[in-house]
Amino acid sequence: MLHFPDDTALIVIDVQLDFCPGGALAVAGGDEVVPVINRLMDRFATVVLTQDWHPEGHLSFAASHPGKAPFEMTEMPYGPQVLWPEHCVQGTPGAEFHPDLRTEPAHLVIRKGFRPAIDSYSAFFENDRRTATALRGYLADRGVRSLVLAGLATDYCVRYSAVDAARLGFQVTVAEDGCRAIDLAGSLAEARAEMQASGVRLAPSAALGGH
Ligand code: VGL
Ligand code: ZN
């Protein structure tokens, strides 16, 4: 199996039950990313998992805004925010990783979205684009310069993570067959365009490289 250089990390975004079929914010085919990601894991010297981890009553939930329905928009102090069905509530089964996702090769699990009033799509910054998760420091301390991203959902957490990573100076590739999208009002096409404009490479996992 081809191994990636030691300065390349695999970042696995939010492969949790609520984003898989049957979950509270199910992404079509969400569970199909699991075997793709499991196969990739052994090829990296650094593997990080992220976990969407909201307190009950999180302000990104439509239920926290009387009169609002899931998938409507609202304004937060940091800008427009999609209102989601309640999902990935701390300690609930839906917040668990998919049971078939290999977690033992992971070196770090980074939780995000736990501040009640601010959503966090990106693995690096919350949605104010300022509050850091500390993933950048972890990767810097390990000498990581290059990232491969996969997980859920392509057009939200993967997209924001990829664009932030590119902005921080990492070389970023998204393994597209290791991702699935929510695709709300054209958000997948918008996400692909924004990632490409940010210098993120989109590639099938079979074409990622390694040596
Ligand atoms: C996500 C919406 C809300 C994601 C997380 O993981 O893409 N999307 N919370
Ligand atoms: Zn969330």
Number of helices: 4
Largest β sheet strand count, sense and barrel closure: 6 strands, parallel
Structural class: alpha/beta
Number of strands: 8
Global outline: globular
Order of helical and strand elements:
EHEEEEHEHEHE
CATH superfamily: Isochorismatase-like
In short:
With 211 residues, this protein is α/β, with parallel strands linked by helices. It has helices spanning 33-41, 135-141, 154-167, 187-197, and strands at residues 8-13, 46-52, 73-76, 79-82, 108-112, 146-152, 171-180, 201-203.
Question: Explain this structure to me?
Answer:
By secondary structure, the protein is an alpha/beta fold. It has one domain: Rossmann fold (3-Layer(aba) Sandwich), CATH 3.40.50.850. It contains 4 helices and 8 strands; from the N terminus they run βαββββαβαβαβ. It has helices at 33-41, 135-141, 154-167, 187-197; strands spanning 8-13, 46-52, 73-76, 79-82, 108-112, 146-152, 171-180, 201-203. A 6-stranded parallel β-sheet has the order 5-2-1-6-7-8. It has a two-stranded antiparallel sheet with strand order 3-4. α1 (33-41) links the parallel β1 (8-13) and β2 (46-52). α3 runs parallel beside α4. Residues 14, 19, 52, 84, 121, 152-153, 156-157 line the site of pyrazine-2-carboxylic acid (VGL).
Short key terms for the protein model shown above:
two-stranded antiparallel ribbon, alpha/beta, 4 helices, 6-stranded parallel beta sheet, single chain, binds zinc ion, 211 residues, binds pyrazine-2-carboxylic acid, Rossmann fold, 8 strands, 19% helix, globular
